[in-house]
Design brief:
The protein has about 150 residues and is an alpha+beta fold. Helix content is about 30%, strand content about 30%. It has a single domain, classed as Gcn5-related N-acetyltransferase (GNAT) (Aminopeptidase). The chain is built from three helices and seven strands; from the N terminus they run βαβββαβαββ. The protein has a seven-stranded mixed sheet, sandwiched between helices. Helix 2 links the parallel strand 4 and strand 5.
Protein backbone atom coordinates (compact mmCIF):
# COMPACT_ATOMS: atom_id res chain seq x y z
CA UNK A 1 0.00 0.00 0.00
CA UNK A 2 1.14 3.49 -0.82
CA UNK A 3 -0.09 6.86 0.46
CA UNK A 4 0.38 9.69 -2.02
CA UNK A 5 -0.95 13.19 -2.72
CA UNK A 6 -3.53 13.76 -5.44
CA UNK A 7 -5.18 16.97 -6.65
CA UNK A 8 -8.83 17.60 -5.84
CA UNK A 9 -9.47 17.38 -9.60
CA UNK A 10 -8.23 13.78 -9.78
CA UNK A 11 -11.07 11.57 -11.08
CA UNK A 12 -10.31 8.85 -8.50
CA UNK A 13 -10.54 11.39 -5.66
CA UNK A 14 -13.81 12.63 -7.13
CA UNK A 15 -15.18 9.07 -7.25
CA UNK A 16 -14.31 8.41 -3.60
CA UNK A 17 -15.66 11.76 -2.39
CA UNK A 18 -18.92 11.10 -4.27
CA UNK A 19 -19.14 7.65 -2.64
CA UNK A 20 -18.45 9.20 0.77
CA UNK A 21 -21.21 11.76 0.29
CA UNK A 22 -23.71 9.07 -0.82
CA UNK A 23 -22.85 6.96 2.23
CA UNK A 24 -23.23 9.95 4.55
CA UNK A 25 -26.66 10.79 3.12
CA UNK A 26 -27.75 7.17 3.56
CA UNK A 27 -26.39 7.00 7.13
CA UNK A 28 -28.09 10.20 8.24
CA UNK A 29 -31.39 9.28 6.62
CA UNK A 30 -31.01 12.03 4.03
CA UNK A 31 -31.20 14.69 6.73
CA UNK A 32 -28.54 16.85 5.11
CA UNK A 33 -30.05 16.67 1.63
CA UNK A 34 -27.93 16.85 -1.51
CA UNK A 35 -25.00 18.90 -0.26
CA UNK A 36 -22.70 20.30 -2.90
CA UNK A 37 -19.10 19.23 -2.40
CA UNK A 38 -16.69 22.15 -2.47
CA UNK A 39 -12.97 21.38 -2.45
CA UNK A 40 -11.80 24.91 -1.38
CA UNK A 41 -8.10 24.42 -0.97
CA UNK A 42 -8.31 20.82 0.25
CA UNK A 43 -5.08 18.89 -0.21
CA UNK A 44 -5.88 15.21 -0.67
CA UNK A 45 -3.92 12.13 0.21
CA UNK A 46 -4.99 8.75 -1.14
CA UNK A 47 -4.19 5.14 -0.30
CA UNK A 48 -3.29 3.11 -3.39
CA UNK A 49 -3.43 -0.68 -3.40
CA UNK A 50 -2.40 -2.51 -6.56
CA UNK A 51 -2.79 0.64 -8.63
CA UNK A 52 -6.32 1.31 -7.33
CA UNK A 53 -7.21 4.24 -5.06
CA UNK A 54 -9.00 2.66 -2.09
CA UNK A 55 -9.14 5.50 0.45
CA UNK A 56 -8.87 9.27 0.62
CA UNK A 57 -8.70 12.08 3.11
CA UNK A 58 -8.04 15.77 2.86
CA UNK A 59 -6.48 18.61 4.76
CA UNK A 60 -7.94 22.11 4.57
CA UNK A 61 -6.26 25.25 5.88
CA UNK A 62 -8.35 27.12 8.47
CA UNK A 63 -5.66 29.51 9.74
CA UNK A 64 -1.91 29.54 10.31
CA UNK A 65 -2.22 27.28 13.35
CA UNK A 66 -5.21 25.13 12.44
CA UNK A 67 -5.99 22.60 9.74
CA UNK A 68 -9.17 20.60 9.25
CA UNK A 69 -9.40 16.93 8.25
CA UNK A 70 -11.96 16.53 5.48
CA UNK A 71 -13.54 13.76 3.42
CA UNK A 72 -12.06 10.70 5.13
CA UNK A 73 -13.29 7.66 3.24
CA UNK A 74 -12.24 4.03 2.83
CA UNK A 75 -13.92 1.79 0.26
CA UNK A 76 -16.10 -0.74 2.12
CA UNK A 77 -14.11 -3.76 0.89
CA UNK A 78 -10.94 -2.27 2.45
CA UNK A 79 -12.32 -1.37 5.87
CA UNK A 80 -11.02 -3.00 9.02
CA UNK A 81 -7.41 -3.09 7.77
CA UNK A 82 -6.16 0.03 9.55
CA UNK A 83 -6.08 2.17 6.39
CA UNK A 84 -8.04 5.05 7.92
CA UNK A 85 -5.65 5.15 10.87
CA UNK A 86 -2.61 5.20 8.54
CA UNK A 87 -4.21 7.86 6.35
CA UNK A 88 -5.09 10.01 9.37
CA UNK A 89 -1.49 9.75 10.57
CA UNK A 90 -0.25 10.84 7.13
CA UNK A 91 -2.66 13.81 7.20
CA UNK A 92 -1.32 14.75 10.63
CA UNK A 93 2.23 14.65 9.23
CA UNK A 94 1.17 16.85 6.31
CA UNK A 95 -0.48 19.33 8.71
CA UNK A 96 2.63 19.40 10.89
CA UNK A 97 4.85 20.09 7.88
CA UNK A 98 2.51 22.89 6.81
CA UNK A 99 3.04 24.48 10.22
CA UNK A 100 -0.28 23.62 11.84
CA UNK A 101 -0.25 22.97 15.58
CA UNK A 102 -3.90 21.86 15.77
CA UNK A 103 -6.04 19.61 13.61
CA UNK A 104 -9.81 19.67 13.93
CA UNK A 105 -12.57 17.73 12.23
CA UNK A 106 -16.31 17.17 12.12
CA UNK A 107 -18.19 13.90 11.87
CA UNK A 108 -21.74 12.74 12.46
CA UNK A 109 -23.25 11.37 15.64
CA UNK A 110 -24.53 8.51 13.44
CA UNK A 111 -20.95 7.38 12.61
CA UNK A 112 -19.73 5.55 15.72
CA UNK A 113 -16.82 3.90 13.88
CA UNK A 114 -15.48 7.31 12.82
CA UNK A 115 -15.87 8.67 16.34
CA UNK A 116 -14.05 5.62 17.68
CA UNK A 117 -11.20 6.10 15.21
CA UNK A 118 -10.74 9.76 16.04
CA UNK A 119 -10.88 9.34 19.81
CA UNK A 120 -8.50 6.36 19.70
CA UNK A 121 -6.06 8.55 17.74
CA UNK A 122 -6.05 11.23 20.43
CA UNK A 123 -8.74 13.61 19.19
CA UNK A 124 -10.75 15.30 21.94
CA UNK A 125 -14.34 16.59 21.66
CA UNK A 126 -14.66 20.34 21.06
CA UNK A 127 -17.68 22.61 20.51
CA UNK A 128 -19.07 22.53 16.98
CA UNK A 129 -17.59 25.28 14.83
CA UNK A 130 -18.09 27.07 11.53
CA UNK A 131 -20.60 25.62 9.11
CA UNK A 132 -21.44 22.83 11.58
CA UNK A 133 -22.99 25.13 14.21
CA UNK A 134 -26.69 24.40 14.41
CA UNK A 135 -26.44 20.90 12.91
CA UNK A 136 -27.72 18.58 15.66
CA UNK A 137 -25.92 15.60 14.06
CA UNK A 138 -22.44 17.18 14.03
CA UNK A 139 -19.75 16.40 16.57
CA UNK A 140 -16.34 18.00 16.38
CA UNK A 141 -12.90 16.97 17.59
CA UNK A 142 -9.41 18.47 17.75
CA UNK A 143 -5.89 17.27 18.39
CA UNK A 144 -2.74 19.20 19.24
CA UNK A 145 0.15 18.21 17.02
CA UNK A 146 3.72 17.86 18.26
CA UNK A 147 5.77 21.06 18.27
CA UNK A 148 8.88 21.17 16.09
CA UNK A 149 12.10 21.07 18.08
Amino acid sequence: MLIEPRPATDPEVDTLVAAQQRELRAADGGLDGQATVVHDGIRYLVVVDGGRVVACGGLQWIDADTGEVKRMYVRPAYRGRGLARQLLSALEDLAFHRGHSVLCLETGTYLPAAIGLYTSCGYQPIPVYGEYVGNPYSVCFAKRLPVAA
